[in-house]
Amino acid sequence: MADRDVVLEMKGITKTFGEIVALDDVDLTLHRGEILGLAGDNGAGKSTLIKCLSGAHEPDSGRIVFEGEDVTIENPREAKALGIETTFQELALAPNLSVTQNVFLGREETQRVLPLVPIMNKGAMETRTRELLSDLEIGVDPDKRVSDLSGGQRQLVAISRTMLSDPEIIIIMDEPTSALSVEAAERVLELIERMRREGASIILISHNFEHMRAVADRIQILHTGRDVGVLDVEEATRENIVDLMVSGTLEGRGGDDSDPSISA
Ligand SMILES: Nc1ncnc2c1ncn2[C@@H]1O[C@H](COP(=O)(O)OP(=O)(O)OP(=O)(O)O)[C@@H](O)[C@H]1O
Ligand SMILES: [Mg+2]
């Protein structure tokens, strides 16, 4: 496992906003084909870390190594050009446009930097969307207006559109499964696993441990801007995650059964 192919490394990332240290020397490693969960309490630095990857923020210091090379990501276009797609849940969709129009929304930008997605006419876009949805086994009509979809269907569209450019890394932000029925949340999790099978490496940010544990290989925990641990999913019990999230340590748990401070 140790020599698994690494697709992305963030090393010593620090980011301040005035007096606030949002990220303090944070490391992150993403292996190829992996689903990495990112957990942490409100304000722990999850969004800030991801924004350093998606080109919304530039770190004060630290390195980002993508496919073995140091990169700087100065804006969202550069992130996309590298093959890093971020989905900001259904809020990113335009309700009055069709599913197809939403899938292609904003692609013109990427087009100028790297011709990943050829310019297409309406018919071709519809065909491509139909293909994409069918590959990912999403039973949504590409002609439907997004406002006519259920919340769960919107999430599926918002997430699946990141696959259009065949990205290396997909970041799924903040609660893709919140406010969904159990069944709809399961479909989103299935989609995430399917995207991994199609070749993407995925970072999933969520406050829902059960959802994260259902799909993640490892779960990394941030606490007040610091990287306090990465757990393999087998050791990522609810208790371990909560301990790291709340106090930044495992407080004598973490599988050390011989710890004399824990009796009976
Ligand atoms: N643009 C900004 N300007 C000033 N402070 C910011 C900015 N963005 C984030 N912060 C601060 O940085 C810290 C980390 O915030 P961040 O949004 O990354 O946390 P988070 O882990 O995503 O939390 P949540 O779970 O609530 O989304 C917080 O103290 C926050 O107030
Ligand atoms: Mg956040």
Describe the structure.
There is one protein chain. The protein is of the alpha/beta class and about 260 residues long. The protein has a domain at about 5-95 and about 165-245: 3-Layer(aba) Sandwich (Rossmann fold), CATH 3.40.50.300. The chain is built from 9 helices and 10 strands. The chain has helices at about 45-55, 75-80, 100-105, 105-115, 120-135, 150-160, 180-195, 210-215, 240-245, and strands at about 5-15, 20-30, 35-40, 60-65, 70, 85, 170, 200-205, 220-225, 225-230. The strands form 2 sheets. A 6-stranded mixed sheet has the order 6-7-8-3-9-10, sandwiched between helices. Strands 2-1-4-5 form a 4-stranded antiparallel sheet, with helices on one face. A hairpin with a 2-residue loop joins strand 9 (about 220-225) and strand 10. Helix 6 packs parallel to helix 7. The longest helix is centred in the C-terminal third of the chain and has 16 residues, at about 180-195. The protein is globular and about 55 Å long. The two termini are about 35 Å apart. The model is unreliable at about 110-115 and about 255-264 (pLDDT under 50). Bound molecules: adenosine-5'-triphosphate and magnesium ion. Adenosine-5'-triphosphate binds near residues 17, 43, 46 and 47. Pfam families: ABC_tran. Keywords: ATP-binding, Nucleotide-binding. This is ATP-binding cassette domain-containing protein.
